[in-house]
Amino acid sequence: MFKIFYEDLVIGQKETFGSYKVTREEVIDFASKYDPQPFHLDDEAAKKSVFGALCASGWHTSAMMMRMMVDHMKDKGIAGLGSPGLDGVEWKKPVFPGDILSVEGETTAKRDSASRPNIGLVKSTYTVRNQKGETVMIMRGNAMMAKRPK
Amino acid sequence: MFKIFYEDLVIGQKETFGSYKVTREEVIDFASKYDPQPFHLDDEAAKKSVFGALCASGWHTSAMMMRMMVDHMKDKGIAGLGSPGLDGVEWKKPVFPGDILSVEGETTAKRDSASRPNIGLVKSTYTVRNQKGETVMIMRGNAMMAKRPK
Questions:
Q1: Does the CA dihedral A28-A32-A37-A43 come out positive or negative?
Q2: Angle ∠(B142,B147,B149) on CA atoms, nearest 5
Q3: Which end of chain B has the smaller Cβ count within 10 Å, N or C?
């Protein structure tokens, strides 16, 4: 099932993928469960906030990005084995209901795992944009990838 | 409603809060929507993964942490105005169904906003632990906070 392994990734290579329609219902559902701050739940409170209108939790934007990343990995057969963490996240602009998000991923660094000979570690930068081409989020992430079976 | 403003935060001050029971149903529900990788959905696939058993998406752990943070902010009346991003996340150990998570937050830096005189910017480190006291996640975050009204 895996087709693209650690060895296949090229530094500087970019890929664009995903098309995620942000709905008001989902923004409020996610925020109700995980980030019940007024500007993610209530139109009037959001108008008075720094965001200006009801907008998605940054963690919800991150989760929507992840869904696009996993769908892309499955489509391409990318041998992802999970992530030990992130080097940084910037939530650059609010994400509003009605926005359509997509992702650009760029491989920025790779190295062999010191402890696991069949695994490599990859650094990538993911830029999430809305339908106007505005960058709403940048995430610099780390991932474990399987090496090609010998 | 706000009681604790930017001026009240002290560098090095720590607070522990939250008690979030991780359920199998919620792990699978979150993963189905946002991170449908086999080790977050399927017991057999998870056993063969680096995690050893079905575990929560790191983004789900982040979301559960955020819920504890927002509940804590509301309890204490902390004047949080949202976040421009994170300086880093480490997912240190897998989070399993049945785990009970809590958070320790420490204020690490603060400065006035250059552009908004009524806002301050705060850096904090959040350590998420399970019921055994094991650190499962560390997040270094940035937040906007309201200054005390004059």
A1: positive
A2: 160
A3: C
- CATH of residue A120's domain is 3.10.129.10
Q: What is the pTM of this model?
A: 0.97
For residue B62, tell me if it sits in a domain: yes
The answer as to whether A1 is a domain residue is: no
Distance CA A80, CA A74 (A): 9
Chain A residues at the B interface, defined by Cβ less than 8 Å, are 30, 33-37, 39, 49-51, 57-59, 62-64, 66-67, 70, 73, 80-91, 119, 144
CB contact under 8 A, A86 and B82: no
Q: How many domains does chain B have?
A: 1
The helix or strand, by DSSP H or E, that contains position A104, with its residue range, turns out to be strand A100-112
Residue A46: give the domain boundaries. Answer: 6-146
Q: Which two tokens stand for residue A134?
A: 């505005």
Helix (H) or strand (E) holding A27: helix A24-34
Residue B141 lies in a domain: yes
Q: Which of B50, B58, B67 sits opposite A34 (nearest CB)?
A: B67
Using DSSP's 3-state secondary structure scheme, residue A18 falls into: strand
- Note whether residue B126 is domain-resident: yes
What does the pLDDT profile of chain A (150 residues) look like in tens digits? 899 999 999 999 999 999 999 999 999 999 999 999 999 999 999 999 989 999 999 999 999 999 999 999 999 999 999 999 999 999 999 999 999 999 999 999 999 999 999 999 999 999 999 999 999 999 999 999 999 998
The whole-angstrom separation of Cα B35 and Cα A65 is 9
The contact set of B with A (CB < 8 A) is: 30, 33-37, 39, 49-51, 57-59, 62-64, 66-67, 70, 73, 80-91, 116, 119, 144
